[in-house]
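Hi team,

Filling in the usual template for the complex we talked about on Friday. All components are listed, including any nucleic acid strands or ligand strings, so the model treats them as one assembly.

SUBMITTER: L.P.
PURPOSE: interface mapping
COMPONENTS: two
RESIDUES: 755
SEQUENCES:
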Amino acid sequence: MKLVRLKAMAVKETLQVWRDPFSLLIALLMPLMQMLLLGYGVSLDIKHLPVCVYDREASQDSQDLLKRFQASEYFEIVQVADNYTEITTSLDRGRCVLAIVIPPDFTERLNDSGASTVQAIVDATDTNTANIAMGYAQAVVGGFSTDAQISATDAQGRPLQFIQPVDVESRVWFNEDLSSRNFIIPGIIALIMALVGAQLTSLTISREWERGTMELLVSTPVSPMEVMLGKLAPYFLIGLLDAAFCLVFGVFWFDVPFRGDVATLFLATSLFLVVVLGIGYLVSVKIKSQVGAAQMGLLLTLLPTTLLSGYAFPIDQMPPLVQGVTYLVFARYYVTALKALFLKGSGIVDLAPELLAMVAYAAVVAFLAARAFRKNLD
Amino acid sequence: MFDRIWRIVIKEFIELKRDKWARFRLIVPPLVQMLVFGYAATFEVYHVSTVVLDRDQTQESRELLSRFTFSDRFRVVETASTDAEVARAIDRSDAAVALVIHPGFANLLRKGQTAPLQVIVDGTNSNTALIALGYVDLIAGQYSADYAADLVRRGLAGANAKPVVVNLETRPWYNPDLNGRWFFVPGVVGTLTLVLIVSLTASAIVREREVGTLEQLMVSPLRPVELILGKTVPFFLIGLAEVALVAGFGMAWFRVPFFGNPIILLLGTVLFLLSTLGLGILISTVCKTQQQAFASNFFVLNPMFTLSGFSFPISSMPNVLQWLTYLDPLRYYLVVIRGTFVKGVGLDALWPDMLGMAALGTGLLGLSILRFRKSLD
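RESULT (copied from the run log):
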């Protein structure tokens, strides 16, 4: 291996990327677009959920309860219904997601037995939103309940004793505001790395085939190892630059906390890039058409990174078999490391298992990639 | 005229029949993606790994913790004996939730006072954390209510004491078990159709241009409209078949019900396909090579997917993005496909979305035909 030839190869590839608008678009514009789109568009937080109310009592108490729904930032009363049919229509047409029905004997029961029931009908088509909405509705009614107890008096006018045996004191660690942006953005870096890395490299060899320059490349004294390293070096640098961009953008634009150390982040990112670039290169050697290679590259890197890495969908909720498969998904280790680095502030020691798994993966892929390209024209 | 269109259609199908890779692409990746999505895409919260620290060791504390042990929402993976162990379990992600009961818990309860149950949640996954916290509240609240009722019944709580006041009775409609697959499987059908049909249409036309056979078609007696119809009809038919294949597979494999009217879904699919075909042709008029077409597919389809409401609710997006979603045909189609699958609603509920797709479809198709004719000159 000669450094001169390696350098020449890298310079040629860099020039090629620089002059190809398509590659530049992917290398520079894609990370920005993904970051903005996913940073703003991907949110599981619920705000101003449309609510339909049907107050069959219309008393002071029932209005007080409904006012609490209106005051909550999670809900917004968009419709006041007069009968059940209106609620059904409203839910059917998706005009509201939650319907609150207060029974005609709400206050009466509250005064008599001290217990009353309010109905919440929720559109469960979107199960996650339904789940969260029910939790918030529970909290609003719970708040009303507690206050109602405090202000209630018995027949003699003495205040009722308020008993609430257990009080849940919850503390949230690592992501104190439970903001879904803090949860999603670290994972987006993995997504962008997979996208950029696989997209750019999957074309690198197939392009030579399609343009007919492979014959030229083969006739030069450059060795297969030099071809691989020279071709991948520019993409590796682009990947690191994109990672740095994502880090800066996430922390300063979206205010995501970064509590770990930058060196570990770049170590993990380098390992991940080796794997992604290696896979892209392998695909490119095997599939000679550019479009086929690009598609295969996406399928092998982006799909597992989106679905099986724990980036948005929690791995521990998947069926055991699929959980087993995720151990084979290299992005799993990177996403875990990213989230721990951003939110938990974990150090290199805490992340040793993930980093070692990535080292093993990178070694295997690099070995396969190094053997893949042979200098012949069949 | 129909004869000439028909010939182009036949030519396209022959091309498809001879292209092994294209046939593979039509069947295998969609089914694989349906499987992966069906199994992996879930926001449900069950068996959250939990560490418990009971420093009271009384009947009351054990009773409260056992309610968590027996709930299918939580799984106790570790019983800690010090605060440091709790912290380590959360730090290392061995547990996502910690329940801590301090000494004196039962004493406070027996006196009719309020005792704290301390909960620590790993907020890294904000969604799981939020839902898990809701279940902690529910279980602790239930225990609390039972304990209060017991105190009142035994006359230990004072003459004026009353237990919990207002209950919320929740009724999830359309999907009573909150099964996440009912939400994701119909969504995958829509998403896959969008990606597949747009990229197929775009690359079919760009390929002719790249290979140089588009000029041959231009010197034939075909008129531009005939050419465009002949080129799109096959993908329209493939789109219909794809929806049937993927939806059928999803229903059979994941047991997702279909409560609505198939005719309405068919109508919605036809309108949706108009947009996808228009988009495909439009991309093909802008791009000169297949590679460019592939890249622009990506830049167009990726935002459409993110903004469609496929997994992230549109109502939570900032206003500007919410306005943009109205330009996304997938947004309307997901409402129609989920409406027919899960809600079982008809045209009276779905007409605005049908109208939206019809408008977008005609607009995109019209624009693409105009541009296509120009690009032929």
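MY TAKE: Chain A touches chain B through 108 residues (CB under 8 Å). Chain A has two domains: 3-42+179-372, 49-151.

Thanks, L.
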